[in-house]
Amino acid sequence: MQKYKIDKGGIQLTNSMTGYGCGTAGNEDWSVTVEIKAVNHRFLEIYCRLPKTLAAFEEDLKKIIQTGVSRGKLDVFFTLERLGAKKITVVIDNDLAMAYHKSLIELASMCQIQERISLSQIASFPGVLTAQTEEEDVDELFALAAAATRQAVAALCVMRRREGEALQADLQARLALLEGIVADISACSATVVAEQKNRLENRLADILNNIEIDENRLANELAFFADKSDITEELTRLSSHIRQFDQCLHVTECVGRKLDFILQEMLREFNTIGSKSGSLSISNSVIGAKSELEKIREQIQNIE
Fold this sequence. Notes:
By secondary structure, the protein is an alpha+beta fold. It has helices spanning 58-66, 94-110, 119-123, 138-208, 215-228, 232-248, 256-276, 280-300, and strands at 19-26, 30-39, 44-49, 72-82, 88-92, 129-133.
């Protein structure tokens, strides 16, 4: 059986689903900070905590996040901070002020009161002077939030890539161990029939007590055993699965679920080998392989 060489070099493409990213954008009036915390998940789920001013732009901001993330559970926090003082303007209602002034004059004339009408009197009436706060430019705030979100996504991707690099190195080391176990099982399987023949001959010799052994019957039993315990197909499929698993670690698309499927197939093949084999050595190798597969399963739960 040709041994597949695990590729431990080349470009690292595996991404972890765990990570953190932060971005900030601002101008002279506002500062927007975006924090993203990501953990593993079967699909992509994004939960945004937005101030009311930005609530209308939630879907647009999620689309920005989706450009860099394909899988995982993301909690995204938006913080809006005003840097400059609120811009307040006072608006004068000229018509209302003139109406108050005219009414005061008429009232004084009617009551025959000689009194000078002051500016403070007119200004104190409701509606004459109104203080107004300048409304926020929501489009400008969205532009800042979008810029901060892109920064946070970029930082998150860098961290997830670093985590993925460590995951990839660990997985390839374990793939190499599995490859060695498959090679050991293949070598042992070549001697299983011969070992079974010796066991049968020794057992029959003890039972028959020097009576001649029927070689034809023995040959038939060995042929039946050899057919029943043949694991060539399982070993071939295992080598193929190891190769596919390794290749998945070097592609750009999301591969976490595909790796999980391949892992299940590998476990099924090892279980079949364990049930077919009558060799203690092969059984021990299968136990070691299943232990490594469990460790790999834990690791790939965090691959995007």
